[in-house]
Hints:
The chain is mainly α. It is built from nine helices and no strands. The chain has one domain. 73% of the residues lie in helices and 0% in strands. It starts with a helix and ends with a helix. InterPro entries: LeuE-type. Keywords: Cell membrane, Membrane, Transmembrane, Transmembrane helix. It is a multi-pass membrane protein.
Amino acid sequence: xxxxxxxxxxxxxxxxxxxxxxxxxxxxxxxxxxxxxxxxxxxxxxxxxxxxxxxxxxxxxxxxxxxxxxxxxxxxxxxxxxxxxxxxxxxxxxxxxxxxxxxxxxxxxxxxxxxxxxxxxxxxxxxxxxxxxxxxxxxxxxxxxxxxxxxxxxxxxxxxxxxxxxxxxxxxxxxxxxxxxxxxxxxxxxxxxxxxxxxxxxxxxxxxxxxxxxxxxxxxxxxxxxxxxxxxxxxxxxxxx
Length: 241
């Protein structure tokens, strides 16, 4: 039988953790704003959320394996992987921020912007001087797809495995069966993670955050950069201790 009091506490904790502003929320908002219409906005958001959910599911699977004693986690290896992962977050934020400023500079300039041939290819291999704004935006987008961005961002901090290892055991008593409890906790996490991020994306479209894109996009990138820098510094300090 399900312990609804304990389960309610778990749901409240998960909701608080997911909606707290962080790199995942920043990435979902940023990719949502990239869309030119409601359909592409929803597609961008859905792909990003599917990627982050898959990453969370993989981390949860590793955590469960550790909880059940099937696998062991080396803190040194996790520290190294965390530094590498935070490096990716730093790269994702900085490259996107650089692309944003390049796009702004090109938009403000009266002269046609020079775009490297390696960045974009045309069938006729010619660049039109009156290139449209939409085409210009495509050249400055990150080379990773929204799904891959979400997946890599979710997997970029392996120390989340340690978080799940510490978090899940607090609520394993929600049912009489360990395996049933793990299944309920995992499915609840994935369902809440997916639905809440999708809700955040939907609300951002309804309140027309597009008009604030020039502010939100760079702020989202700055959040990623700060998380990346902090994670690298923390990882290096942890390895030295």
